[in-house]
């Protein structure tokens, strides 16, 4: 299809014309049962219906029986297989009056025969058919129901509705070669000779019992067949499914059954009549009712949101021959992905990879305005190859993209994104399948939410407490994964963090709070915040952990926490590790060798007030990987922690360090989800440009500022900084050192750094008070101008806490 398929305002003005053309273009034989289903699918495509069905009078005229339907299963709306023509149902009213019946939610709620529906948040239309006294029934879940254009489209569909005579013999006649007629009361079945050939038996071997044919089918397919041949499980309409029969040699043969139930009358049993054909000889169509049936059956047993998502992906990707498919829930303004296929991060857009915080990413809807518009409209949208889209969507389907909003319960439950790499032609068959699947998936998502609402609350809480994204690091890359437990519904206390520190240092933190409860999650959030704050103050690693231990003891909680804190100097490739009852890091060297770090440990946090937390050195060379994890990944009922750590080291040795995200995913494969799992990896690459650094201790003597200026001048000359830039640096040094000597007591230190043609001046003192920039100065003022002068001369300046004091810094751009 060359043009974009959309259902906007302009599209609605021409929908009836397009519906009329589509109905005329149907290439199916007029008397084929498949034709009726194709006609009904046009109601899904052009009238926005979620269900379209045909009811016709039974042979004795005592019932209006369902003979065919398409879309969402009728049971979702409480619709029955049959209605009496003399009743108060909308079907009976439309047949008696010969006029269309249009009912909204309020009118449906007032009708007694509609009270079987689970809710009345839908609209219903019934239109008399042209031929045999039957009726077209359609359901819409959109607010306002069917609009004027929808009604015109439904009228066109009703004109084309006609159900052919069943593929069964007349009384006393012979059946067509592939036809059957099954008596529902006795199980006796009449079959054509060609049908027996499909089952691999001859007429002399067949005893007329349906059990004989069922015995030749593959056991896994028997439940679906039994749902057809047992009257207690019958659902008239959509009687189409595929099954396998055993062969004397070779793999089983796929067959396709099509048929419908003929209600019995006085002295006549109900019969199931239809045909069986070799599925391999039939055209494989994405609108196959059997596929929708299998999706509905899979969704009926899906208990969690993940189960629902997997069922949808399995049902759609292969029939549509899609290259990638994602199903996501709508959580406020974010699209939280539940299943991706393929699951590798590299197969998805860069924006998605930036938001990869847990097992799957969650991308902001505001970054994808086209998707946001599709969700507001609530209609399937399709964009062929070459359509200009925002990068977050264009990279999902460069050869074509389909977006299926998933409506349920009067709101939007989520969306399904389907993408193709090569140019893909979109036809009405695919649109019908997508529409039907969207309705099924949306309803199933709502049911899954009711089943695991507490699990979803746990996941949302964890996402809020964990870092939204990891920072970019100079000379290193970090990735993290977090998997909540699947055994139970309580939230755990595992956490991780990556904290950038001054002078190209970085702190890696991983920890685990005792227990699985809201209290554990709350304490986890408090400990993560405390460790980040202590690290930002400039304390060494052992002091950071000691302060966190003292804080946890003062909180007087019954819970304790374990923690591993690693401070890495990205310039030198050295690090210090502090353990508080936690697992040590695992190191992978560039040559592939791995080792469990020999890091001495202290007790868990919150156990002893007077506890020692010794620091252990780590040495890294470019290409090394540091792996930190919690015990959920390495401990299980079968293996102790030592065995699990050795297994982790072996798997890390086999990994490819060039793709750190894939390394993390591979380490989680086969993880036993009996406990939360947090995993943090850092690959040290080494800095391409190392800063030049010099320091000077400023003694409190009368010539202190002059000494600092002479030290600065010598350093800048050695670094080759031009004289005009050096004068600016000297002026800033004078002001900052003077302020520190005048307004503070104790030691003062001057640090100079040159990197990427920027000179950084940092003056540290023992006072925690931040210098205050005056809002105004009178001509009589004798102070306060120094900080204004620093601001004017600097490209950037600021202050940070450092070990009980502060550091005031300024950056000056130097010439090349």
**Helix-strand makeup class:** alpha+beta
Assign an overall shape.
elongated
Q: Would you report the number of β strands? A: 33
What is the rounded Rg? 36 Å
Mean pLDDT: 79
| Low-confidence runs | 1-13, 113-118, 165-172, 231-238, 282-287
Neighbour order of strands in the largest sheet: 3-2-1-6-5-4
Work out the helix count.
24
Helix percent band:
25-40%
Mind describing the biggest β-sheet? 6 strands, antiparallel
β-strand amount: 25-35%
Distance between the termini: 56 Å
What does this structure look like?
Residues 239-291 form the PAC domain. The chain has 816 residues and is of the alpha+beta class. The protein is built from 24 helices and 33 strands. The strands form 6 sheets. A 6-stranded antiparallel sheet has the order 3-2-1-6-5-4, with helices on both faces. It has a 6-stranded antiparallel sheet with strand order 14-13-12-17-16-15, sandwiched between helices. β32 and β33 (805-813) form a beta hairpin. α22 (704-719) packs antiparallel against α23. The longest helix has 24 residues, at 428-451. It is elongated, with a radius of gyration of 36 Å. The chain starts with 8 loop residues before the first helix and ends with a strand. The relative contact order is 0.06.
């Amino acid at each position: 299809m060359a043009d974009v398929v959309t259902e906007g305002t302009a599209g609605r003005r021409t929908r009836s014309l397009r519906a009329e053309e589509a109905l005329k273009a149907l290439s199916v034989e007029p008397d084929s049962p498949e034709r009726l289903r194709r006609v009904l699918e046009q109601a899904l495509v052009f009238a926005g219906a979620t269900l379209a069905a045909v009811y016709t009078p039974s042979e004795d005229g005592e019932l209006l029986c369902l003979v065919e339907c398409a879309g969402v299963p009728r049971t979702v709306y409480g619709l029955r297989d049959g209605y009496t023509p003399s009743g108060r149902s909308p079907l009976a009213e439309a047949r008696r009056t010969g006029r269309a019946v249009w009912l909204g939610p309020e009118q449906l709620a007032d009708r007694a025969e509609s009270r079987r529906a689970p809710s009345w948040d839908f609209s219903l239309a019934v239109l008399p058919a042209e031929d045999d006294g039957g009726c077209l029934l359609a359901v819409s879940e959109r607010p306002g129901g069917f609009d004027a254009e929808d009604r015109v489209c439904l009228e066109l569909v009703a004109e084309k509705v006609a159900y052919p005579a069943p593929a069964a013999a007349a009384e006393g006649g012979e059946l067509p070669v592939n036809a059957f007629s099954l008596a529902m009361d006795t199980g006796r079945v009449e079959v054509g000779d060609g049908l027996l050939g499909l089952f691999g038996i001859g007429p002399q071997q067949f005893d007329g019992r349906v059990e004989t044919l069922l015995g030749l089918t593959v056991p896994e397919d028997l439940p679906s067949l039994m749902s057809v041949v047992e009257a207690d499980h019958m659902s008239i309409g959509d009687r189409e499914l595929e099954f396998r029969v055993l062969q004397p040699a070779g793999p089983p043969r796929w067959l396709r059954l099509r048929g419908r139930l003929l209600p019995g009358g006085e002295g006549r049993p109900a019969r199931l009549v239809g045909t069986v054909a070799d599925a391999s000889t039939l055209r494989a169509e994405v609108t196959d009712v059997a596929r929708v049936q299998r999706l509905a059956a899979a969704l009926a047993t899906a208990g969690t949101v993940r189960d629902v998502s997997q069922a949808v992906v399995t049902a759609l990707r292969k029939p549509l021959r899609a290259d990638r498919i994602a199903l996501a829930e709508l959580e406020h303004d974010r699209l939280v992905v539940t299943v991706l296929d393929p699951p590798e991060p590299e197969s998805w857009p860069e924006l998605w990879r930036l938001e990869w915080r847990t097992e799957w990413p969650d991308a902001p809807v505001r970054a994808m305005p086209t998707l946001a518009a599709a969700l507001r409209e609530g209609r399937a949208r399709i964009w062929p190859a070459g359509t200009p889209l925002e990068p977050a969507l264009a990279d999902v389907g460069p050869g074509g993209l389909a977006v299926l909003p998933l409506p349920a319960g009067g709101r939007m439950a989520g969306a399904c994104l389907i993408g193709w790499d090569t140019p893909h032609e979109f036809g009405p068959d695919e649109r019908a399948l997508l529409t039907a699947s969207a309705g099924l998936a949306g309803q199933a998502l709502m049911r899954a939410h009711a089943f695991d609402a507490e699990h979803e609350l746990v996941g949302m809480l964890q996402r809020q407490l964990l870092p939204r994204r990891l920072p970019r690091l100079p000379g290193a890359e970090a990735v993290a994964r977090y998997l909540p437990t699947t055994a139970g519904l309580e939230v755990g206390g595992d956490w991780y963090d990556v904290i950038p520190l001054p002078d190209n240092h970085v702190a890696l933190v991983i920890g685990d709070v005792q227990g699985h409860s809201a209290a554990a999650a709350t304490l986890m959030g408090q400990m993560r915040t405390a460790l980040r704050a202590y690290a930002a103050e400039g304390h060494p690693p052992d002091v950071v952990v000691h302060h966190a231990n003292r804080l946890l003891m003062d909180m007087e909680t019954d819970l304790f926490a374990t923690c591993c804190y690693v401070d890495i100097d990205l310039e030198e490739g050295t690090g210090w590790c502090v353990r508080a009852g936690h697992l040590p890091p695992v190191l992978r060297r560039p040559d592939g060798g791995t080792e469990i770090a020999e890091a001495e440990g202290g007790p868990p946090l919150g156990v002893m007030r007077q506890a020692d937390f010794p620091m252990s050195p780590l040495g890294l060379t470019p290409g090394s990987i540091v792996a930190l994890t919690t015990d959920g990944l390495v401990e299980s009922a079968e293996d102790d922690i030592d065995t699990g750590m050795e297994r982790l080291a072996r798997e890390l040795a086999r990994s490819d360090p060039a793709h750190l995200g894939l390394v993390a995913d591979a380490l989680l494969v086969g993880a036993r989800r009996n406990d939360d799992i947090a995993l943090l990896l850092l690959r040290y690459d080494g800095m391409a440009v190392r800063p030049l650094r010099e320091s000077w201790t400023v003694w409190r003597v009368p010539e202190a500022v002059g000494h600092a200026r002479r030290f600065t001048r010598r350093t800048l000359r050695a670094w080759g900084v031009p004289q005009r830039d050096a004068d600016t640096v000297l002026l800033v040094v004078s002001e900052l050192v003077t302020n520190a000597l005048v307004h503070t007591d104790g030691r003062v230190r001057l640090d100079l750094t040159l990197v990427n043609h920027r000179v950084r001046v940092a003056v540290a003192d023992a006072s925690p008070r931040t210098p205050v920039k005056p809002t105004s100065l009178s001509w009589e003022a004798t102070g306060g101008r120094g900080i204004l002068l620093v601001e004017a001369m600097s490209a950037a300046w600021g202050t940070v806490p450092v070990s009980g004091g502060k550091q005031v810094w300024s950056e000056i751009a130097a010439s090349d």
